[in-house]
Amino acid sequence: MRFSFQPRSRRLLTAALLAVCVAGLPAPTAFAQGNLDAQLEAIRARETALDEKVVELQTQYRDADEARKKQIEAEGEQLFKDFQTNVVQQRNALMTAAQAAPQLSESVAVWAATNAFGENDYANAEQFSKKLLATAPQNRIGLNLLPASQFALQKFTEAQQNFAKAEAAGVLLPQFASFAEAAPEYAQFWAQEQATRQKQASMNLPRVVFKTTKGDVTLELFEEEAPNAVANMITLVESGFYDGVKFHRVIPNFMAQGGDPNSKNDDPTDDGRGGPGYAIDSEFNNPGARKHFRGTLSAANSGPNTAGSQFFLTHLPTPHLNGKHTVYGRVIEGQEVVDSLQIGDEIQNAEVVSKRNHQYTVKKNSNG
After folding, report:
1. Annotated catalytic residue: which of 39, 257, 286, 310?
2. What does the pLDDT look like over 226-253, one tens digit per residue?
3. Residue 320 annotated to the active site
4. Which of 126, 290, 306, 341 has its CA 20 to 30 A from that of 97?
5. Are 277 and 338 members of one domain?
6. Where is this region: Disordered (predicted)?
7. What backbone phi and psi angles, to 5 degrees, belong to 288?
8. 41 and 58: one domain?
9. Would you say residue 359 lies in a domain?
10. Which domain holds residue 306?
11. Which residue out of 249, 290, 315, 330 is catalytically annotated?
């Protein structure tokens, strides 16, 4: 990942940190319980110092000549390396220590829960939120992140109960209001979804594997509810269309989007605009159309009947997309890979590993 000094935000290093995959780092030395707060303050001080240096270099970059710009870019690359090798490992070590600690101070628990949630690590976000509320029962962050994490993990009944506590305390955050509203209905949707999965377990649904730069993702395709979207995916995969395509749009706590052939070139400005040269009709109004849950494979579009090759994989349930995007599969292995994807990560190879014994023909419309 290349670090850029083009003006974007004042929290570039923090954003970069959240984008770094921390899997595979060596196990840290255990922290003493009383030392966790000191470790957190040290990490924050280092983040602040690095961030201030980034802002300084950004300011210089705007007025620099070409020679100086190259120097600044080199300094930025070194800063980013330092950030990865020092701050990231320190943060990961503190997160691991916080997981092992039976109790946490309010500040460490807030930090740990917030960072876990921001990295789509909902299981740890839930546990850190519980530790936070054990220490500070009225903490606003804990009262919100506990049910939000449970909603992401599809524990909808628990989420509903804990969102009610946040609402009763008058601290429900606006970004989670839609989750709180959807939780009761999603408990019903989830029961229906589980019944459908059980019913279809022996129906030989097609499967596709994406071999990405972060690991393998195995998808089960919903041929019963979205046969044309499935035919489209199988046809494109078997043609090699997705090989080398990058994930061009990734939004934490939402989804990772890919499937645009334009992402293969060196021009990021055209990412998100490409497709296979045709469009297919939407199937989100088909009988039994599936809802958006964690790990859903859904068709990206710019309106009804405009889907092509682009798709997205969800980090958590997305109620606002139901009835607007065709759900045509789900992640059955590799959700942790989906959670770790960043912009620029690549599908190195896509393969149909199983399908039904009939021809898959795509029905195209006139919108392509």
Report:
1. 257
2. 999 999 999 999 999 999 999 999 999 9
3. no
4. 341
5. yes
6. 256-277
7. 75, 15
8. yes
9. no
10. 207-354
11. 249
31 part of the active site: no
Q: Is 312 a catalytic residue?
A: yes
The verdict on residue 142 lying in a domain is yes
Considering its fold, how many domains does the chain have in total? 3
**Catalytic-labelled residue, pool 120, 124, 301, 310:** 301
Q: What is the pTM of this model?
A: 0.87
- Contact between 257 and 248 under an 8 Å Cβ cutoff? The reply is yes
Task: Mark which of 74, 101, 128 sits at the end of a domain.
Answer: 101
Check whether residue 192 and residue 145 sit in a common domain. Answer: yes
Catalytic residue among 84, 254, 365, 367: 254
Q: Which amino acid, 112?
A: A
Q: Is residue 360 part of a domain?
A: no
- Among 210, 325, 335, 341, which one carries the catalytic annotation? 325
Per annotation, catalytic residue among 83, 128, 189, 312: 312
The pLDDT tens digits for 20-35 are 333 333 333 444 556 9
In terms of domains, do 72 and 183 share one?
no
Q: Are 248 and 271 in contact (CB under 8 A)?
A: yes
Assess whether 325 carries a catalytic annotation: yes
257 catalytic? Reply is yes
The Cα 173–Cα 73 span in angstroms is 39
Domain boundary among 101, 124, 149: 101
pLDDT of 158-191, one tens digit each? Answer: 999 999 999 999 999 999 999 999 999 999 999 9
> Are residues 154 and 290 both part of a single domain?
no
Task: Report pLDDT digits (tens) over 192-217.
Answer: 999 999 999 999 999 999 999 999 99
Q: Which two tokens stand for residue 293?
A: 């849950």
